[in-house]
Specification:
This protein is α/β, with parallel strands linked by helices and 228 residues long. It has a single domain, classed as 4-Layer Sandwich (Metallo-beta-lactamase, Chain A), CATH 3.60.15.10. Helix content is 27%, strand content 28%. Helix 6 packs antiparallel against helix 7. The radius of gyration is 16 Å and the shape is globular. The termini are far apart. The mean pLDDT is 94.
Length: 228
């Protein structure tokens, strides 16, 4: 199975089903003049991700940016190879950039996967609640949504009449060793619900193609794990 179109200019180019069993869902955005990749898989599948991007026919459109939603290896492991291929800048929240830049085998969970994760420089480390990446007429808004990890981020874009939300690892797991905080996570999920998005592109469990479905998905976890 190769790349799959989700919405106008938005594609799934990697996942545990498409590229490697250890990969998160990896999303590609065609913003006209440039491509943006959200997450990078665990590492072994970088060539498969590249092949899936090439299959979409965007060879003349530069991939300028790789957004890493948090520091875990199934999201960051392929970033170095993809950066080397495309010359893309890497963007993270400051609170999760540290383990990536130091090659922390524990906080990246690399040791869980038997991977030796090498230190990776992060080009843009934003802090605060929000950071906007602009490409032509499009704004990709990055939101600090801590809970799964201290520096977890989500993203959304308004494109062709739909608000598309990239909410990686909404479901957890929530482990104290990785800095999980359920009160922060509860606030983060309520912030995502308030966006009234039309499509949810999740980190491991795929695509939810209506506000009703994505709301039910998030509320299910809030009911189970939420804290006031």
């Amino acid at each position: 199975m190769g790349a799959k179109q989700i919405h106008d200019g938005i594609y799934l180019v990697g996942s545990s089903d498409i590229t490697d069993a250890r990969d998160c869902c990896i999303y590609l955005l065609n913003l006209g003049d440039e491509l943006v990749l959200i997450d990078a898989g665990a590492g072994a599948s970088a060539n498969s991700i590249i092949a899936n991007i090439d299959s979409l026919g965007f060879k003349s459109v530069p991939l300028t940016t790789i957004v890493l939603t948090h520091c875990h290896i199934d999201h960051v492991g392929g970033a170095a190879a993809l950066r080397d291929k495309y010359g893309a800048r890497i963007v993270m929240h400051r609170l999760d950039a540290g383990p990536v830049e130091t090659g922390d085998q524990r906080l990246t969970a690399a040791y869980w996967y038997g991977v030796n994760f090498q230190p990776l420089p992060v080009d843009i480390k934003f802090s605060g609640q929000e950071h906007t990446l602009s490409a032509g007429p499009h704004d990709l808004v990055l939101l600090h949504t801590p809970g799964h990890t201290p520096g977890s981020i989500s993203a959304y874009i308004d494109k062709s009449g739909k608000r598309v939300l990239f909410g990686q690892d909404i479901h957890g797991p929530f482990l104290a060793d990785f800095g999980a905080d359920m009160k922060d996570w509860t606030s983060s999920m309520n912030r995502l619900l308030a966006l009234n998005a039309d499509i949810l592109c999740e980190g491991h469990f795929g695509i939810y193609q209506s506000n009703k479905k994505l709301t039910a998905y998030i509320e299910r976890y809030l009911e189970e794990y939420g804290e006031e």
